Amino acid sequence: MADRLMIEIFDDCVERLHAGQSVEDILHQYPNYADTLRPMLEITRGIQRVRVPSAEISASQDRIRSRVLHEYHAAPTRRYTLPPVLSMAAALLLACLCLFGGGAGLVATGIIDLDNDDVQFGTPSAQPSITDSPTATFSLTASGTPTATATASLTRTSTSSPTASPSRSSTPTATASSTRTLTATSTRTASRTPSMTASRTPSSTLTRTPAPTNTSLIPTRLPASQTPLPPQNLPPTDDDSSGSNNDNGSENDNDDDSDGGDDNDNNNSNDNGGGEDSDDD
Amino acid sequence: MILLVLPDIPEEDALLTAARQGQEAAVMQIYESYFPPIYEYIRLRVNDRHEAEDLTSEVFFKFVKSLRGPNAPRHSLRGWLFKVARNLIATHHVKLKQQPEIELEEWFAAPSDQDPEVIFLQNLNSKAIYEAMRRLTAEQQEVLVLRFGQQLSLEETADIMGKSIGAIKTMQFRAVESMRRLLNAGRKEESYG
Prior knowledge:
The complex is a heterodimer. By secondary structure, chain A is mainly α. In chain A, the strands form two sheets. In chain A, strands 1-2 form a two-stranded antiparallel ribbon. Chain A is built from twelve helices and four strands. Chain B is 72% helix and 0% strand. Residues 103-115 of chain B have low confidence and may be disordered. Chain B is elongated, with a radius of gyration of 18 Å. Chain B folds into two domains: 1-101, Rna Polymerase Sigma Factor, Chain: A (Orthogonal Bundle); 111-193, Arc Repressor Mutant, subunit A (Orthogonal Bundle). In chain B, α2 runs antiparallel to α3 and α7 crosses α8 (165-192). The chains are: A mainly alpha, B mainly alpha. The interface between A and B is large, with 39 and 54 residues.
């Protein structure tokens, strides 16, 4: 304890010495410890005066100056590089932007006919006909460094169901090529299950369950703000039997709002196309 | 006596910012301001002046190279420079595997004729003080050089040495106390001798 006190007092004395106070002035602050502090402060002052001759310092400084300047000019220009993880993330983000941008471009140029009911209401198996190519590859340079190059590849695939047909009388179940599975019914009372609204995983599954089994339970679990399907997105009654793709579009719209742009949507490019179609319309 | 005046922290930060932006004048100003304390710090811990010069130049080479890289100092330039110097000294000592030997006489300036206490201390104890310093542990020597020789703050010294402030306070106290005992023992030997 006494040691701790002396340590603090001595440090205060050192600070006062640094500030330019004389030893006598400092000792007046601590008269009870003056006998102990005086030799210690004398030693401290002695150490403070240990110096390298100024001529030696100046001579060395002059000799090194030109070399330091040379090193400064010889140093390579700084190039800012992203960390590898950020580079990959930036590349993927750009890939996503290109994908969505590419789809919008197709829509804008009329390659995709949004008014074509056969395409719009057909099952996903009919949509490969509107894709520009089955495989799209994007090479993106994420940063200025030669090594920071990321390549993103997208393969659009679709599966054909034996029961799929481009007509409006499609089967109630439409399976997309991606992980998203949509199940449509002919009723307006379809809603998301609670597990769907709670999870924001990219591989979310949207399910429309038949009314008799689930509609009695689900609305009581869902908050009002998360009403899964706005009425305007529901398929018309007369198209109920073939409205699976309209359902896809509305589901995707809702999903985009809640998921904030999940990467899974990229793979569901066909489905998203339907969703965008609905919006544009 | 050499009186080292290091730049204030705000001025130091402004200089560092300018240097990082590629202003050569700022780089050279940093060099002019910090070469003496860095060289002196190294020279007090290294036996050979040419070695000290090489190590000091290495400190500034690292500095100018780091300016254009991600490891450039952002704050506390002097702390950064002393840390680099400390690491280089440690590497140097490992290579030599010996304690630094310093010729004592050249380190002490001529006694001031205005301060009788200093005259007494230097005339009577200059060599003894340094001999006592040399008998301390490496860390105690270092803390005395940084705190009393370079007059760095507790925070800077703690940062450079990788210790807590409390540890630096204790270390400097213990170091001076040890020196006091050694000096007293020397006096007694002289008086009995």
